[in-house]
Amino acid sequence: MDIKSIKSLQEELSTLIGVSGHEDDVSNYILNLIEKENLADKAWIDPLGNVLAIKIGTTGKERILLDAHIDEIGFMVSHIEKSGFLRFVPIGGWDQRILLGQAVIVRSKVGEKFHGIIGSKPPHLTTANERKKPVEIPDMYIDIGMNSIEEVKNNNIDIGTTGTLFSPFVDFPNNMVRGKAFDDRTACNLLIQVLRLLKEDPSFEDTVLFNFAVQEEVGGRGAITGAFKLEPTMALAIENTTAADVPGIREAQIPVFIGKGPAITVADISMISSPKVNERLVKNAELDKIPYQFKKPMYGGTDAGKIHISRSGVPSSVVSVPCRYIHSPTSLLKLDDILDTVHFIDAYIRNKAGA
Fold first, then answer.
1. Which pLDDT does position 355 carry in this prediction?
2. What is the three-class DSSP state of 240?
3. CB under 8 Å to 38, separation ≥6 — which residues?
C-alpha cells in the first residue's frame, strides 16, 4: 500500500454514481473487489444494499465494526417539462448557493449516463430586485440537451431518476486531489486498504466487521440495519470531515486541518464519543508515532450516531480524513492524510498498546 494505490482507488470510487437509495454501482464494485482479492472471510450485500464483510480474529474477544457510507448527495427528477427540461429535488444536504451553472450527470434507469447543466431564468431577463434574491431550487431546472418529454422517457429518464453534480478527478500540488463524492468514498477507499493490510498480516486478535453503508446522507439508515446484523461490541464510523482551514475562519472555529492526520471526534450533534474507544485510538497512535488531531465539537453527525444505540448499546467514535469543500463536486484532500488514517485504524485494530 502506498500513495499511488490510494490515489488510484480514490479516483475509481469517487467517479462512480451512487446517490442515496441508488448505490448499486458502488456496492457491486466494492463487493466484487473484496471477492476478487479474497479480502474477507465472508462478504455479502444485505437486503437494504449495505456491503457487509467479516475478518475473523485469532481470539474474537471483541467485535470491532468499521463503518463507511457508500452513498453521496445528489438529486431526483421530480418533473419533466414538455420541452425536455428536468425539474428536481435534492437528496441529502446541498448548499443551494453552489448549484446554478453546475455540470451534472443523470444516471438513467438502465445505467446510461447523460450530462446536463443546472439553469434558471437568465440574469439578463430578471429584474434588479430578482437578482438580489437567491434562486430557489424549485426555480431551477436541468438541461440535458433533449427536446421533448418523449425523448427524455425514451432514454429511460423518468420521475425518480437520480443524478449528482459532477467534476473530474484532478491532481493538485502537494499530493492533493480534487473530485466528487469524497464524502464518503474516501472512507470506502480507506477500509479496503485496511482489509488488504489485515490479509497481509492476519495476526490480529479481535474480529473486524465492515459495513459499507447505504443512505447515510438521508438519516444513517444503512448503519442501523448493518449494526443490528453484525452485533459489534465497539465501533468506528470512518468519515470525511470539514477542514475549514481557509481564510476568514477563526482558528477556534476550524474543526480540523488538512495535513495533520486523522481526526478523532469527541462529540458531535449525534453522539458523545466513547472515552474508552478514543483512549485505544490515542494510545496505539502514540505507540506507533502516527499523527492525529481532535475534531472540535459539536459539528456534524455520522453513522456512529445510529450505531452507538444499536441493540443494548455500542461504545463508538468517529475517525475522519480532513477534506475541504465537502458536499460539493470539488472536494479537496491530501492523500497523505488517507495513508496516515489507514495506519491509524490498523493500529487500533491490532492494539499493541493493550488499551
1. 83
2. strand
3. 199
Same domain, 267 and 136: no
Is 141 found in the same domain as 65?
A: no
The secondary element (H helix, E strand) that includes residue 264 is strand 263-265
- Distance (Å, rounded) from C-alpha 299 to C-alpha 242? 9
Name the one residue in this structure whose C-alpha cell is 468519515.
Answer: 239
Is the domain of 47 the same as that of 188? yes
What's the CATH code of the domain at 329? 3.40.630.10
R_g (Cα) of the chain, nearest Å: 21
User: Residue 63: CA atoms inside 13 Å, Cβ hemisphere, count?
Assistant: 13
Residue 68 shares a structural domain with residue 111: no
Average pLDDT over residues 340-355: 95
> Could you give the residue numbers annotated as active site?
216
Residues 91 and 7 in one domain: no
Judge whether 16 and 29 are in contact, CB under 8 Å. Answer: yes
Name which of 190, 281, 188 is nearest 235 in CA terms: 281
Q: What is the pLDDT of residue 10?
A: 98
Q: Is the pTM of this model over 0.90?
A: yes
Phi, psi of 292 (to 5 degrees): -155, 165
